[in-house]
Structure formats: structure tokens, C-alpha cells
Amino acid sequence: MRTICVVITARPSYSRIKTVMDAIIKHKELKLQLIVMGSALLDKYGSVVDFIEKDGFKINNKIHTIVEGQELTSMPKSTALGLLEITTVFENLRPDIVVTIADRYETIATAIAASYMNIPLAHIQGGEVTGSIDEKVRHAVTKLSNFHFASTKLAGKRIRKMGENPSDIYVTGCPSMDLTMEVVINHKLDFDPIVKYGGVGSEIDLTGDYIVVLQHPVTTEYDKAGKHVLETLQAVAKLNLPTIWLWPNIDAGSDDTSGEIRSFREEINPQNIYFMKNMSSVDFLKLLKNSSCIVGNSSVAIRECSFMGVPAINIGTRQQSRERGKNVINVNYSSIEIEEAILIQINNKKCKKDNIYGTGDAGEKIADILSRVDLKIEKRLTY
Question: How confident is the model over 257-271, as pLDDT tens digits?
């Protein structure tokens, strides 16, 4: 029996690994270990622990690693604390393979610990580009990893150009497309988000056109985070469309982003906007599938919404180089541009669907590969 240790570090990580975890549990030659750490444990940013446990997964360890604060120093300090703590957990669990996801600072802590402890490392979502600090982390994790599960063909080619052995690169698609496929099949909004998840704001009607907003601070522009989100707030408030607004992540600048949201809410008292922290992955995808468009700078607008054909407005530089489909309109941090783009997308209703990030079967593919790869720690580079 081969033991696979999955490390979840933030709320998006769970949706992008859930079907892999399901497939590992069902696989007769694999055993799942699960670590939850970082902002995934913080209720302030939308803890995912309740969702994980409700879905029937056993969490082996919870590691609190976040040094809170919106300054840049909080992220390297959190990385250092994560590296220190997860090393002890790996020593106790002794997995055969560690699986890490995407590009956060908790991700690189996981990768460094596994590499120095001679534990084979598998990386999901490597080879993608965004032009921000996330890209630096993502490529660094690629070089620390032994096995690469790329979401797109182009991402796989980039990993190969980085000198990784072609035999260790697998273009499986992104596991979050597996959940998205389920929602495409059964997309009815069969719950009331406000009743189920709570939050604050004015009453809104979700039976007609509505929009979803999710905007994070940009680490390399963290000192402008408040100003950036204010432009979006002004545009959305002016349009007066029913809006669900999700809370930002924990990156540097998040205090300014959330602070500006609170100030705007209290001083302007905008109508038709409801603010909430988090919801389950499937419920969030259903909310998006039934929306008229998503606004902000989250990768979900480019990945999952492309698969579902949901119109998206991508604001600013956070996703500037990421592969995208025909559902996305790119705008600057300008309330006028944002407002105009929302009106265009509302009129578009639905867009052409794209399968850039997979076809909905990545979880089983990844689990099967993990069950049969050679457990090696050496790098067989090609340059």
C-alpha cells in the first residue's frame, strides 16, 4: 500500500485536489494522508475544514502557520513557520509521496521540506504563468518536484523547457474541472446562499441576472490594494445589480482590501450587494454557473468559468499571462472600464465553453499515475 500525503494550504486548494483525494481513497493500492495548513484553517479568510470533514475526509494534521498582517514580511515569516512545522509532521507521517498544489508560500514550504527529507514530491498546476510572485513560487516548486501534473498542454511544454524529464510530466488537466463537470451536468441553484452561509449586506434577488465579485490584493502592488478594490466597488454599486461579493485571500494588502470594503459598506450603504466569506466548492460553482458574470481577479474566472461558459471580467495584473478562453474581458483598475465590461458581459449572457484546463477526469488519472510511478528522489534533467 502506497501512502500519498496531500497538503491543502488555502480555500481554493481544496476544490483543486478534492477529486484526486476521492480517487486515492477508492484506489486499492493507495492510502490517503491529509494535512491542512495556512489560511485554509483561518475562519477570517474562509476556513475549509468544515467542508473537508463534511465530505468525509480524515485530517491527519492541522498546522497553524500564518503570521497575520498585510505587510510583505508576513509572507516569508509564514513560509518559514510552515517549513518548520510541516517538517515535523512529515517525520511522523512518513508518506511515500507528497502532493502539493499551485503556487502559494505555504506550497513552497511544503516543497522544500519534502525535498530535503528525500520524499518524492508531486506538483499540481505547474508550468502556468501569471507574471506575479505566484509565478516565481510555482516555477521554484516545479524545480523541487519529481512528478508534474500539468493542467494544460502549454503548461506541460513549459515544464519540459525548464529541463524536467518528459517521462515525469503528465498533462492530466486540472482536477477542479472534475467538480466543474459535475456542476455543468447538475447546475440548478438548489440552495439559498444567504440562508445557508450568512454574511452581511442588503437583500438581493438571485432569480434574475446577478453577478459574483471576487477580488484579491496583488502582492507586487499591495500598497494600492485599497484603491484598486474601491474602483470595483464604485462600478458595481453604480450598476445596482444583485451581487454576491466574496471575501479576499490573506496575501499582503488584504487588510486594505477588506478595510475598503467595510468602509464602503458602512459609509455608502450600497444596495443590492451582499458580502460573504466562503462556501463549499460545489455550491460556489453552482452560484457562478447561474450568474450573469464574475468580476475580479481570481483564477476561477479564467479556469472553471471558461469550462462552464460563464462571462468574466478580469481586473488588473494578477492573472495577466494566464491562458484564457473566450469568456474573459480584461480591464484596468478603472471603475468606468469595469462598469462598461459588466454591461457587455450581462448582455452576452453565456459564452463559448473552452476545455483549456481539462475535460473533467483529472482526479482518476492522477491517482492512477501516483500508484505506479517509481519512487525516486533524484532529478533526471534533460539540459
Answer: 999 999 999 999 899
